[in-house]
């Protein structure tokens, strides 16, 4: 009887701790919304913010359970006044969380985003920072801090009353220890946000086109702690030359006074579908050296479609991961060698995006991804990018989630086909494929090796999709841009800095295209926005890292980054520079190419440092 009672008491205590913190986080949301109230917010919005915010609250509350579990374990062997210890433990964090919450409520009216590591950036110059604090700011801070703290302290005293949890027998000690040890990995799972590939991040609570509601759903303390783990001082990184010289080099690379753009579309207002093909290497396509295995083409479908469209044979990914690739393609923003800007929602919100441009033209915008949309903060990026509709694995039946990452390409291509055939209005759609991501789990077996077999599978899905689209009325006004999100180490064994890893295919096709052929100029993913918008006679100057490559006067080069290094490529060759070693590591060593790459990185990081939600670069 004692065994069972002690077991239940320990379990109930940990559950009380968990839900106590969830209650604390729930209370924050209506208080924050009332303090920063925006016109048009309804009572239903308050409940929706609480509901969607719970996903993050459930994760973060689990962090506060680890220490109580350890105290319970100690109590199994050494008698403690457990409830009193828990109350004191809670008081420490109540004070901390109350301070963070009160500061966040006040700063939001200035910053327009939830508290993060930016706070510590400004505190480096505390004198100037505090000089901008008004008396009313202090009053508002105290109005929130004091009542909120007192309420939490009262709840803490009410919920955690003194009681003894006794475990005297050996059997009781073993049973309780075993149960408490099981709770520890359970808490780890909760802090991660589940067992999926995506870990908890602020973007997982985004649900609305109203950015205020998304921000209101964020747990401010989690936002602060999360950003501290991702914190960088961009203004002090990659400084190679004086600003005037850097600006001059950058201008030579990106700006041109002449424009004789070659127009390849038969309409200025096509419907547009961008297909981001996971991990597709140009070395597996067409007549490339490694494009055949056992004398069989890896991508016969894409090879055939190449002859029907406009193929960019010297296209290069800007980096080596999907989170970098989608920003490069859809935002025209250069990738970073040591971080990913998608992890900083407060910065990506200020960037121009293709979805925002098309939305301003009254196009319907949507994003399709068969995986976990919370992975790598993608949800917050897509929402803030202006996509009206986001479709992910959670929108598909369980029977179609056949791989580790989610829904296979066969099903997502079918979904996209059905969506397009039903469209009655102009649309801009983006589709990120999935099946050619490791572990390359696909339903067909054309090749023994996993990577090339997965490419062959997605290739067949794409070809079937295009052939069916050709039979529909939608084909006439449709432009499809097929491009890899990033390359892959194929042929196998090449290094992370090898140019072959970043060489990717890009193909434009569809009924809206009036020309076919091969473009041999050096092109980056970032060049898609300006090139596409120029074809539609739309201003693209906000996409400062994007070139119109169908203008022959535009500089002809490609640039990519790898883990703290970069490579600059043009018609004279390439130079690869290792930023850790601060030296050229490629056999080809051109000082001009090295300086060009350094100027790009220096400009990029200065601009990232200056990004903020209310303005662009």
Please describe what this structure looks like.
The protein is of the alpha/beta class. Helices cover 47% and strands 12% of the residues. It contains 21 helices and 14 strands. The protein has helices spanning 2-35, 43-63, 66-77, 82-111, 118-123, 126-131, 135-159, 170-192, 211-216, 220-229, 243-254, 300-306, 322-331, 345-348, 354-360, 378-385, 409-422, 450-469, 499-502, 528-535, 591-610, and strands at residues 271-277, 292-293, 296-297, 310-316, 364-369, 389-391, 427-432, 478-484, 503-509, 517-524, 557-562, 565-570, 573-578, 583-584. The strands form 3 sheets. An 8-stranded mixed β-sheet has the order 6-5-7-1-8-9-4-10. Strands 11-12-13-14 form a 4-stranded antiparallel β-sheet, covered by helices on one side. The protein has a two-stranded antiparallel sheet with strand order 2-3. β5 (364-369), α16 and β6 (389-391) form a beta-alpha-beta unit. α1 runs antiparallel to α7 (135-159) and α4 packs antiparallel against α7. The longest helix has 34 residues, at 2-35. It is globular.
Question: Could you give the topology of this structure?
Answer:
Blueprint: H1 2-35, H2 43-63, H3 66-77, H4 82-111, H5 118-123, H6 126-131, H7 135-159, H8 170-192, H9 211-216, H10 220-229, H11 243-254, E1 271-277, E2 292-293, E3 296-297, H12 300-306, E4 310-316, H13 322-331, H14 345-348, H15 354-360, E5 364-369, H16 378-385, E6 389-391, H17 409-422, E7 427-432, H18 450-469, E8 478-484, H19 499-502, E9 503-509, E10 517-524, H20 528-535, E11 557-562, E12 565-570, E13 573-578, E14 583-584, H21 591-610
Parallel strand pairs: 1-7, 1-8, 4-10, 5-6, 5-7
Antiparallel strand pairs: 2-3, 4-9, 8-9, 11-12, 12-13, 13-14
Helix pairs in contact: 1-2, 1-4, 1-7, 1-8, 2-8, 3-4, 3-8, 4-7, 11-21, 12-18, 17-18
């Amino acid at each position: 009887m004692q065994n069972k009672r002690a077991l239940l008491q320990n379990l109930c205590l940990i559950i009380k701790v968990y839900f106590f913190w969830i209650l604390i986080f729930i209370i924050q949301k209506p208080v924050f919304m009332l303090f920063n109230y925006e016109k048009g917010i309804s009572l239903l919005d308050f409940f929706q913010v609480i509901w969607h915010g719970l996903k993050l609250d459930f994760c973060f509350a689990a962090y506060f359970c680890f220490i109580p579990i350890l105290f319970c374990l100690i109590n199994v062997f050494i008698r403690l006044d457990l409830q009193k210890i828990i109350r004191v433990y809670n008081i420490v964090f109540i004070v901390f969380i109350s301070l963070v919450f009160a500061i966040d409520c006040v700063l939001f009216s200035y910053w327009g985003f939830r508290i993060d590591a930016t706070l510590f950036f400004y505190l480096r110059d505390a004198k100037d920072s505090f000089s901008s604090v008004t008396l009313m700011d202090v009053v508002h801070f105290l109005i929130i801090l004091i009542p909120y703290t007192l309420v939490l302290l009262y709840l803490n005293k009410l919920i955690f009353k003194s009681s003894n949890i006794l475990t005297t027998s050996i059997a009781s000690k073993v049973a309780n220890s075993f149960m408490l040890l099981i709770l520890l990995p359970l808490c780890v799972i909760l802090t991660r946000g589940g067992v999926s590939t995506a870990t908890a991040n602020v973007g997982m609570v985004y649900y609305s086109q109203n950015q205020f509601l998304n921000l209101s759903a964020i747990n401010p303390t989690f936002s602060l702690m999360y950003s501290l783990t991702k914190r960088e001082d961009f203004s002090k990184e990659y400084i190679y030359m004086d600003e005037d010289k850097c600006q001059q080099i950058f201008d030579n690379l990106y700006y041109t006074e002449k424009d004789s753009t070659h127009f390849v579309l038969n309409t200025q207002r096509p419907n547009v579908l961008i297909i981001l093909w996971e991990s597709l290497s140009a070395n597996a396509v067409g007549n490339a050296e490694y494009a055949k295995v056992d004398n069989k083409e890896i991508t016969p479908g894409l090879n055939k479609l190449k002859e029907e469209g406009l193929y960019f044979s010297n296209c290069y990914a800007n980096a080596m991961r999907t989170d970098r690739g989608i920003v490069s393609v859809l935002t025209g923003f250069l990738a970073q060698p040591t971080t990913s800007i998608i992890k900083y929602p407060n910065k990506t919100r200020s960037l121009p995006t293709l979805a925002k441009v098309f939305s301003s033209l009254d196009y319907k915008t949507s994003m399709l991804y068969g995986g976990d949309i919370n992975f790598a903060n993608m949800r917050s990026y897509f929402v803030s990018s202006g996509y009206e509709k986001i479709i992910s694995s959670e929108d598909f039946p369980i029977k179609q989630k056949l791989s580790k990452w989610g829904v296979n390409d066969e099903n997502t291509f079918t979904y996209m086909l059905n969506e397009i055939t039903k469209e009655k209005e102009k649309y801009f759609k983006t589709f990120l494929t999935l099946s050619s991501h490791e572990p390359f789990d696909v339903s067909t077996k054309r090749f023994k090796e996993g990577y090339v077999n997965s490419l062959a599978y997605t290739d067949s899905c794409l070809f079937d999709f295009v052939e069916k689209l050709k039979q529909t009325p939608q084909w006439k006004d449709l432009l499809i841009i097929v491009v890899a999100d990033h390359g892959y180490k194929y042929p196998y064994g090449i290094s992370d800095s090898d140019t072959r890893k970043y060489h990717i295919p890009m193909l434009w096709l569809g009924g809206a295209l009036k020309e076919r052929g091969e473009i041999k100029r050096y092109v980056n993913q970032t060049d898609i926005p300006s090139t596409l918008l120029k074809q539609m006679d739309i201003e693209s100057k906000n996409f400062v890292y994007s070139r119109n490559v169908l203008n022959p006067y535009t500089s002809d080069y490609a640039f990519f980054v790898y883990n703290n290094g970069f490579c600059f490529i043009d018609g004279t060759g390439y130079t690869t520079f290792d930023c850790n070693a601060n030296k050229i590591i490629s056999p080809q060593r051109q000082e001009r190419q090295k300086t060009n790459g350094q100027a790009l990185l220096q400009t990029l990081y200065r601009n990232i440092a200056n990004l903020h939600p209310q303005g662009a670069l």
